[in-house]
Amino acid sequence: MGEMDKIYTDFPYYGSPRITHELQRKGIMINHKRVERLMRVMGIEAVYPKPNLSKNDKPHPVYPYLLKNLDITKSNQVWGTDITYINVKNDWLYLVAILDWYSRYVISWELSDTLEAGFCVNNLQNALNQAIPDVHNSDQGSQFTSDEYLGTLQSQSTIQISMDSRGRCMDNIFTERLWRSVKYEEVYIQDYQSPREARQLLAKYLKTYNEKRLHQSLQYNTPAEIYFGTKTLKIKTKKEELIS
Predict the structure, then answer these.
(1) Are 30 and 64 in contact (CB under 8 A)?
(2) 40 near 46, Cβ under 8 Å?
(3) What are the angstrom distances between the C-alpha of 226 and each of 42, 106, 154, 229, 234?
(4) For 6, phi and psi rounded to 5 degrees?
(5) Exposed (0-12), middle (13-18) or buried (19+): which is 178, by Cβ within 10 Å?
(6) Ramachandran angles phi, psi of 186, nearest 5°
(7) pLDDT digits (tens, 9 = 90+) for 206-223
(8) How far apart, in whole angstroms, are the C-alpha atoms of residue 173 and residue 128?
(9) pLDDT tens-digit profile of 16-27?
(10) For a FRET experiment, which of 25, 47, 133, 158 has its CA 20 to 30 Å from that of 124?
């Protein structure tokens, strides 16, 4: 599944036939039906350029997408959250993070071996213990539309709740960029042998990401310097991010 994840990260529009052929070109003898089954297990499918880990087919509250043409000019103005798949030897974990869109600072993150809503709720509570955003944005996944998650947001009367349109993964482009960095700069390099190792090394990487890694989009400052500092930056729009 690790090789499938790499292929999917590079070619999110690939369905099971092309992923099967890519794997076979790498010398991995696998048939189309097995690839289809593994894609279902991983929660990924073609067209959506991200793991569709929080797919929700049940009726749920839907909030409007509030970020179109919004100028993001300060920390804690907009938080975005999402879930991605982390490959571990003979197993997998799910990583959720809350990202401050202005500074790219990872406010909080958590790993889980299931997709139950609880680990996302815990992550949100940890973030809210640090600050309160003006807007919280997510997809319409079952974790983020659960009563417990929405109730936690609604307990803070000043937070506006925003949700991506169905199939519009680029509504959350900054978190998608975070996942790509996490995968290529950490996960694929380390080849985690256990959940404990994954948790320890991800903690180290995300601390480096926040405090030491320079971001071109932040004029070569770190997320922590922008998040906790007073310097105002002209952050790229989502359209500019897509073409940069």
Answers:
(1) no
(2) no
(3) 35, 12, 28, 5, 12
(4) -65, -45
(5) buried
(6) -135, -65
(7) 999 999 999 988 999 999
(8) 22
(9) 888 787 778 888
(10) 47
Q: In the structure encoding, which two tokens stand for residue 143, read together?
A: 């974790």
Q: Which of 112, 118, 172, 113 is nearest to 146 (CA)?
A: 118
User: Domain 78-243 sits in which CATH superfamily?
Assistant: Ribonuclease H-like superfamily/Ribonuclease H (3.30.420.10)
Spell out the domain ranges in the chain.
2-42, 78-243
Structure tokens at 196: 């404990």
pTM score: 0.77
> What tokens does 182 get?
């996490």
Residues in the chain: 244
Tokens (6 digits) for 107: 């406010």
How does DSSP assign the chain, residue by residue? -HHHHHHHHH-TT--HHHHHHHHHHTT----HHHHHHHHHHHT--SSSSS--TT---S---------TT----STTSEEEEEEEEEEETTEEEEEEEEEETTT--EEEEEEESS--THHHHHHHHHHHTT---SEEEE-S-TTTTSHHHHHHHHTSTTPEEEEPPTT-GGGGHHHHHHHHHHIIIIIHHH--SSHHHHHHHHHHHHHHHHHT--BGGGTSB-HHHHHHS-----PPPHHHHHH-
Degrees, nearest 5: CA angle 202-203-204 = 90
